[in-house]
Structure formats: structure tokens, C-alpha cells
Design brief:
With 279 residues, this protein is an alpha/beta fold. The chain folds into two domains: 133 residues, Rossmann fold (3-Layer(aba) Sandwich); 137 residues, 3-Layer(aba) Sandwich (Rossmann fold), CATH 3.40.50. The chain is built from ten helices and twelve strands. The strands form two sheets. A six-stranded mixed beta sheet has the order 2-1-3-5-6-4. A six-stranded parallel beta sheet has the order 9-8-7-10-11-12, sandwiched between helices. Helix 1 runs antiparallel to helix 10, helix 4 crosses helix 9 and helix 9 packs across helix 10. The longest helix is centred in the last third of the chain and has 18 residues. The chain is globular and about 55 Å long.
């Protein structure tokens, strides 16, 4: 009997750690599974669907988390609410899920950061949508910061959150206009990601007024943003923890697998070492 096949799709995707992580998750669970990578630019997504249908399931990353939705038969409640999909399970239907919330919340929990108070969110793309919805549902006051060219998308996200979550406290500003103190800064942009590791999406001055910092970027392990946060004495968590925890949540969808937190913590550490070896 051949192994069930899985994959991750995105563009560009040469930096992905997903095969390493998912293969280890199959091993920990004692299950057979082949996991590969497919570079799929947005314009090629429709033409790839028949090929993707041959997989048992797959993950989606930048820039296809929203673009995949029109090609799916069904969305689970969270994916529909957030308008973002990072996991698909193939069966009689193409069903889309988002496990980013699981990864985000677990990463904060394991890193000792509470999702509460005033949150400044950098970016308004697929991952940022999840962060914004989760923060609002946790009772946070959320400010979405974006570049001028993303203003329309930024305002649309804020309005969507207000419409879907009555009483949501959401405001918007430009990245260059961030002011005041925040309990948590969340970076949902790809700024600082390998190979362009020298950038931060926020000024050092604005960052210095944030008690906690979460950066969804996982390559490099310590982005310039995380290094600056540590220098400020802020509690900080990088994206590797979220990446591994959201992957574990995908296996829960595909196979019903529950993992011991200690095993996932070890996999986070091992994944960091593997990434350092590769890059």
C-alpha cells in the first residue's frame, strides 16, 4: 500500500520548513505519510486543482491563503469567519480549514504571553486576519497598522471584523504613525523574512513601547524585530513555535492525532536547529 500524499503550496516557497515538521509529526504519531513542496503562484492555482485533488490533504501559505477559497467546496466555521485557509482535507469534498489560530494561541501560551489589553497588529494579509480576529475575540483593543498602499485592504478588514463581531474595538493607522503604548505587538507581515533579513515593519521607537512582541516570521529564527524586542526587555516569541503548533493542528484534522505538548516543544527546538543548519 502506497503512502498517503500531502504537500504545502505557496509562492515563493524555497524557504519552507514544512516537510521537516510534518514528516516528524507523522513519525511521532506512528503514521505513514509523504509530504512534498509545490511552488504555486496565484495565477497557476486553478490549473493545479486537479493535481491537488490527488493528495490526501495539503497546506497553503503566502500568497494563496485567501485565493484558494473559491476553489473549495466547503469551509469550516473558523475559515469562513476569518476568510483564510491554510489547510485542506480532501475526501468527497475539498474542505478548507485554518489552523493558524491554534498555532498563534499555543505559541503565545508556551512563550508566556497573554493575549489581552491593547494590541498593535502589523499588516492586513492572510495571517494578520487571523491574529486580528483572535485578539478581538479575546477582548483586546486592536489597532491594525499597514502601509499607505494597503489602506483600502486595511479598512476593509477592520470593517469586516466590526460586522462579524459586534462590539469589536478595532482602529487603523499607518505603520509610520504608530504611537502610544501597547501590551502586545504582532507582526503579520513578511518583513524580515529570509533572505531579506535586515528589515523591520515598525520603527525601533514604536517597538520600544510594546511590552510583548510576537513575530510570525520564522526564518530567521530571531528576526531583527525579535532581537530589538529582546534588547528592549520585551517578552518575545518568534514564528517557529506557531509554525509547528499549526502543523500539529493540521494533523488533528487529517488523522485526529493529539500530540503531547512536550513532543511539540521538542519539535520546535529541533526545527530551529534544522533551519539553522540549512540556512
Amino acid at each position: 500500500m502506497s503512502k498517503r500524499r500531502f504537500a504545502v503550496i505557496g509562492h515563493p516557497i524555497g524557504h519552507t520548513m514544512s516537510p521537516f515538521i510534518h514528516k516528524r509529526l507523522f513519525e511521532i504519531a506512528g503514521l505513514e505519510g509523504e509530504y512534498t513542496v509545490a511552488d504555486v503562484p496565484p495565477e497557476a492555482l486553478g490549473a493545479m486543482m486537479n493535481e491537488l485533488d490527488e493528495l490526501a490533504g495539503y497546506n497553503i501559505t503566502i500568497p494563496n491563503k485567501q485565493r484558494i477559497i473559491p476553489y473549495l467546496d466547503r469551509l469550516d466555521d473558523r475559515a469562513r469567519l476569518y476568510g483564510s485557509v491554510n489547510t485542506v482535507c480532501n475526501g468527497s469534498e475539498r474542505t478548507g480549514y485554518t489552523t493558524d489560530p491554534d498555532g498563534f494561541l499555543k505559541a503565545l501560551e508556551r512563550g508566556g504571553i497573554k493575549l489581552a489589553g491593547k494590541v498593535i497588529l502589523l499588516g492586513c494579509g492572510g495571517a494578520s486576519r487571523t491574529f486580528a480576529f483572535e485578539a478581538v475575540q479575546a477582548g483586546c483593543s486592536v489597532t491594525i497598522a499597514a502601509r499607505p498602499e494597503s489602506r483600502e485592504k486595511q479598512l476593509a478588514l477592520a470593517n469586516e471584523i466590526r460586522e462579524k463581531l459586534g462590539g469589536a474595538e478595532v482602529s487603523c493607522c499607518l505603520l509610520s504613525d504608530i504611537s502610544g503604548e501597547y501590551d502586545l505587538l504582532v507582526n503579520g507581515t513578511p518583513v524580515g523574512m529570509y533572505p531579506n533579513v535586515g528589515g523591520m515593519a515598525v520603527s525601533a521607537k514604536a517597538l520600544s513601547r510594546c511590552a510583548g512582541v510576537f513575530d510570525a516570521v520564522y526564518n530567521p529564527l530571531k528576526t531583527k524585530l525579535i532581537e530589538a524586542a529582546e534588547a528592549n526587555g520585551s517578552v518575545s516569541v518568534g514564528g517557529m513555535s506557531m509554525l509547528v503548533w499549526q502543523a500539529a493542528a493540521a494533523h488533528k484534522i487529517w488523522d485526529g492525532t493529539d500530540y503531547d505538548p512536550a513532543d511539540i516543544d521538542q519539535l520546535v527546538e529541533d526545527s530551529a536547529k534544522e533551519q539553522a543548519r540549512l540556512f
